[in-house]
Write a structure and sequence with these properties.
The complex is a heterotrimer. Chain A contains 5 helices and 10 strands. In chain A, helix 1 packs across helix 2. Chain A has a single domain, classed as 3-Layer(aba) Sandwich (Rossmann fold), CATH 3.40.50.11310. In chain A, the strands form 2 sheets. Chain A has a 7-stranded mixed β-sheet, with helices on both faces. Chain B contains 12 helices and 4 strands. Chain B has a 4-stranded antiparallel β-sheet. In chain B, helix 4 packs across helix 5 and helix 8 packs across helix 9. Classes of the chains: A alpha/beta, B alpha+beta, C alpha/beta. At the B-C interface, helix 1, helix 5, helix 11 and helix 12 of B face helix 2, helix 4, helix 5, strand 11 and helix 7 of C.
């Protein structure tokens, strides 16, 4: 017998439902992806919807350029807003229009760095542009290649970064995710 | 094994809790019901600080905590925070309140009239010791007034605005869903108006009185006059997913508006409202609100100061946390202290071993 | 549409106590905390069934991370069996079904008040430190709004000044626990109040650390491989507590952070603060196969 068994806590062993298990696993992948920039982590399901259900709800303002995903996001209770007002943005960064949206994404301020948005985009891992990463989460430096992204992306990210202001990015390829927080220095090789 | 003697933590806390609960004995629905009927003012105070309007749960929390107010409020807050939010009620306007009591100290009489309502203000505070001698105290019956006071009363501030006595700031309509919610967002400064009022509404009554009283005695910059004090019931009107607006019931509310002469040649107003009937709290809260605008940083009437320090769950929790062992940090300070002593007097005795 | 399909069936308690919306908010803030190491992120901080100041910030982070396969260790002042650690650990396992452990090496998640275990944490482990006061600037600026502006401006001059004044007065650094440290070269943080002994364990570590203050509603993080540098002057080096030469009178281990136990004869005895390290050493001495992992300190020196 322990103290808490006298309190109104369920006696049986609690089991997470499918939603809880999925969102917990999604977040764990995102957390390690951002903690170890450039490493590939595994999501419980492919696509962006899993990130939306793990992260956003009625407290959030979301920009989304994919109508199907927008519908899903609306169901979470989040407000759909223009890119300039978003705290989370699901972007197609394989085209120039995506870059225009990224230009608008809030980067927060030195006073409130947490106002800098979380940006989610699809990419192809292991092909395309080679990048060298340094910064927190990386022991010395690491190299990754990300493909399927519009040219000018990395220059725009660099131009908009005013650390600690900036935005944080997740790239998705199937069930794989790579995180690039604003603290990561990216050298285009 | 050498460490067995110290491995009693789990058992110790179990038995300590039993010892405490043994004193309270069995808690059943009868006891909860008795608490709810006998102590409506306490129930109101607890519901206000918990920001949860449910008299039965408040009575249960009081029974479970043996009347320890901070424990009762924590029980309710911890329960409240996990509950789903099904709907957000429509804002309530002054003139929509079912008003039981409404007084103003600023004018001899006011539009709608002074309505004394239920109060002990003019009663003699004599302890009814006869009760202990076996003679029950039976309150005398109320004689209804010849003409019942109207249930709805206008707002005095509305009259003052019409007179140009108080500023009438432009109002922007905010959808109920878009009202900032203190329980879902952190309190940051300068605080959003909604956060300030929500924070005052769930503040600790005693703490608010302390700081409000300090302001009244002169640590504030504005002397309050009670413009309007109201005890009322408010209809909780929510929208059904089908679009129908319906009343989900009524809650008791108190609100106070205090005023003083402002800088711009107009009156300034301070406001505070809370769930339940609690006059001391709303007058103190309104006084702090009145003083906040011109308060210097770090003064007790500055918003950041009084909102942080009147949060009952945070303040009481931090106070009792000092009972927890702190020997690791203490040891670290001791090391610095001894190191400094050694450095200052190298010939003196070494650190005791 | 009806209320029924907008919400879920009512449950007396969510898995891991916190409801889904509380967890999502924490997740969002935890990600931001990782993205800007050492920067205090404000969060709503829900009430939990424990008093504020008793680990409610750490608890909310831990509850967000917990899953049935988690293995949880909880320590208070280095001890697993401390009353509050026992209470928190039993709550965590009750609401999540996670396994409990005292073994640092076996834990996937370690919630701690005021200590980092002596055995090195490895990649994949998460350390959650309970924080009473997250603001390193409070000694020079109690007002939170002004302090926030100072962080925004990287205006740490007044903090340097009091450190300097104390050195001038006493000839050495006088800060005890919670030694202010610069994270990733940008934000000064207060490392929970862990003793100075533990601060180097955060620098370029393998593991991920969250620091969470429930009452003050702030959380911050030190990701793996992040620079954590105590604020020191080049001519007065950072100095950990002088415990390197002490020996635990119960377990016989030497060179770790110790608790001092005043004795009747006027002197002091010492026992190792990381209680399970002591237990492992005793078990080893009694011939049991209990593995002590690599430690941050060896022979009282940082390895």
């Amino acid at each position: 017998m322990t103290a808490l068994s006298q309190s109104p806590v369920p006696a049986s062993v609690p089991v997470p439902d499918a939603f809880e298990a999925r969102t917990n696993a999604t977040f764990e992948a995102l957390m390690w992806a951002l903690s170890r920039p450039g490493t590939v982590q595994t999501l419980p399901a492919s696509g962006m919807a899993g990130l939306a259900e793990a992260l956003v709800d009625r407290e959030c303002k979301v920009f989304c350029d994919d109508p199907d995903l927008s519908h899903f996001v609306a169901f979470t209770g989040a407000a759909l807003v223009p890119a300039a007002a978003a705290d989370h943005a699901f972007l197609g960064l394989d085209r120039a229009e995506g870059l225009k949206n990224l230009e608008q994404i809030p980067v927060g301020s030195a006073l409130y760095p947490d106002d800098g948005a979380t940006v989610v985009a699809f990419a192809r891992f292991g092909e395309g542009q080679k990048l060298r990463l340094t910064g927190p989460g990386i022991e010395t430096s690491s190299e990754i290649t990300l493909g399927g992204l519009v040219p000018g992306l990395w220059a725009l990210r660099a131009a908009r970064s005013r650390y600690p202001a900036g935005f944080d990015m997740f790239f998705i390829c199937g069930t794989s995710v790579i995180g690039l927080p604003r603290s990561t220095l990216i050298e285009v090789l | 094994m050498a460490y067995v003697a110290t491995r009693g933590g789990a058992r110790a806390i179990d038995q300590a809790e039993r010892l405490y609960r043994a004193e309270l004995g069995q808690i059943d629905a009868t006891r909860v019901d008795a608490v709810r009927r006998a102590l409506p003012m306490l129930i109101d105070r607890v519901m206000g600080e918990a920001s949860l309007y449910e008299p039965d749960l408040a009575a249960l929390a009081l029974a479970q905590a043996g009347g320890d107010l901070y424990e009762a409020v924590l029980l309710l807050r911890a329960w409240r925070t996990t509950q789903p939010r099904l709907a957000i009620a429509e804002p309530v306007r002054q003139e929509q309140l079912f008003t039981h009591r409404r007084i103003s100290a600023a004018f001899k009489d006011i539009p709608g009239g002074q309505i004394l309502g239920p109060t002990l203000d003019y009663a003699h505070r004599l302890l009814a010791t006869d009760v202990l001698q076996g003679r029950p105290y039976c309150p005398a019956p109320v004689t209804p007034a010849a003409i019942a006071a109207p249930a709805h009363q206008p707002s005095l501030a509305a009259w003052q605005k019409a007179q140009g006595l108080v500023a009438d700031p432009a109002r922007t309509e905010v959808a109920p869903d878009a009202i900032p919610d203190l329980t879902r967002e952190p309190l940051l400064f300068p605080a959003k108006r909604a956060h300030t009022l929500q924070s005052l509404a769930r503040a600790d009554t005693g703490g608010m009185l302390t700081l409000g009283y300090a302001a009244m005695r002169g640590y504030g910059n504005a002397h309050p006059t009670v413009n309007e004090l109201r005890l009322a019931e408010a209809e909780v009107r929510v929208t059904h997913p089908r679009g129908t607006v319906f009343s989900a019931g009524r809650v008791k509310v108190s609100q106070a508006e205090v005023t003083s002469k402002g800088k711009s040649g107009q009156l300034s107003l301070g406001f505070c409202a809370t769930l339940g009937w609690n006059e001391v709290k709303v007058i103190s809260g309104a006084t702090l609100d009145l003083n906040a605008a011109a308060a210097p940083k770090g003064s007790p009437v500055e918003e950041e100061f009084f909102l942080y320090h009147t949060e009952p769950v945070e303040a009481s929790g931090f106070c009792i946390h000092f009972k927890l062992p702190h020997y690791v940090t203490f040891q670290s300070s001791l090391d610095a202290l001894r190191g400094a002593k050694t450095a200052a007097a190298p010939q003196s005795e070494q650190v005791p071993t | 549409m009806s209320i029924a399909n907008l919400t879920k069936a009512w449950q007396p308690m969510s898995y891991g106590f916190l409801d889904a919306s509380a967890k999502r908010e924490l997740r969002r803030k935890m990600l931001k905390a990782i993205a800007v190491p050492g920067c205090q992120m404000p969060y709503a901080s829900r009430e939990v069934p424990m008093a504020r100041g008793w680990g409610t910030g750490g608890l909310q982070v831990t509850l967000t991370l917990l899953k049935p396969s988690s293995v949880v260790k909880v320590i208070d002042q280095g001890a697993d069996d401390s009353v509050n650690a026992a209470s928190i650990r039993s709550f965590l396992s009750k609401v999540s079904g996670a396994a409990e452990t005292w073994d640092t090496l076996a834990a996937s998640l370690i919630q701690s008040r005021h200590r980092i275990p002596e055995e090195r944490l490895h990649a994949g482990q998460i350390l959650v430190l309970q924080v009473p006061n997250p603001e390193p600037l409070r000694p020079v600026e109690p007002n939170m709004s002004i302090a926030r502006q100072m962080h925004a401006d990287a205006d740490y001059g007044r903090l340097w000044l009091i450190l300097y004044e104390r050195i001038v007065r006493s000839g050495r650094i006088m800060e005890g626990a919670a030694y202010p440290s610069l994270v990733n070269g940008r934000h000064v943080m207060t490392p929970s109040p862990i003793p100075r002994w533990d601060v180097p364990k955060l620098h370029m570590a393998q593991h991920l650390t969250f620091l969470s203050a429930g009452r003050e509603k702030r959380l911050y993080a030190v990701p793996p491989f992040t620079k954590v540098e105590p604020l020191v002057f080049s001519d007065v080096p950072f100095k950990v507590e002088d415990h390197g030469a002490l020996t635990c009178h119960r377990s016989g281990v030497s060179g770790f952070y110790m608790n001092e136990i005043p004795q009747d004869n006027g002197g002091s005895a010492f026992e190792v603060s990381d209680s399970h390290l002591g237990i492992k050493a005793i078990r080893q001495a009694e011939g049991e196969a209990d593995r002590i992992g690599a430690t941050w300190y060896q022979n009282g020196q940082l390895a």
